[in-house]
What does this fold into?
Amino acid sequence: MTWSTLLECRERLPAIADLAEGFATLLQQLGSVTPFELAVAGGRRMATPGLAFLVGYQAALRMLWPSAPPSLGAMCATEQRSLRPADMQTRLTDLRLTGQKDFVTAGDAADWLLIAARSEQPGESPRLSLAVVYPGEPGVRVEKLPALPLMPDISHGRLHLDDALCELLAGDGWDAYVKPFRTLEDVYVLSAMTAWLYGIGQDSGWPQPLQLRLLALLAGCAEVSRQPPNNPAGHVLLGGLFAQFDGLKAEVDQALRDGNPEWAMMWQRDQSVMQLAAGARAKRLAKALAANQNTSVMNAG
It folds into this structure.
């Protein structure tokens, strides 16, 4: 995707209730794209903020697992509202998974699922592995949960695993996958949601300065997407992007109120999704600032 492609784009796909079908339609339209291109070009084309969020989420998954199948997937890590390895009960034994994941985004529509599971031996400290399972296989069941007030068009489910056969991904489950995914999700969801707003601004004739600031934010997202997710400097830059995004809130809200009431309603309903991980981002930013400060002091010495 070139920037001129985004600037010239005026396409918007209709909302499709079947999330897997809608995502397949998007991929067919976009062709071969990088994860960042998927987030931005895909987010621009989505009919709702929820669908833009889902596209950003899928882009993050593809950065995490570059050989992911070309279909809808999901990360399954949270148990009892926690991501701490010590709080997880899902177990991996001899390529078999048993346990439960409480909140899986679009889990009932996903074609593949990444599972964070405990894999340490008795007496060892908690250790995670990451495995892949496929819905419909023996021992894999996704229970669809009631829609939430936030992004009601994006389903979520509870995953039940009963001695399910899996494929194991290389590397430590926490350091190589669960921990970096939190950063990747922030980067690519921010990119997709900003692209959605930029598209709304294009279609609605928002003031040019606001459109340009949204475009500049996307350019910043492009740079941060090139940073390793464990890079403290990248976390500082990402903190700056979220500060920019938050700083546009009043202008965006006013522009939406002056335009299509349906888009204004959707954004008013769904925009708080951008604050769900604010606490974790703040902690990462504080650590990154401290790490960069320490590096500066060492270099000065």
Notes: The two ends are 44 Å apart (CA to CA). Strands lie at 73-76, 91-93, 96-105, 112-118, 128-133, 140-144, 156-165, 167-168. Residues 174-204 form the longest helix (31 residues). The mean pLDDT is 93.
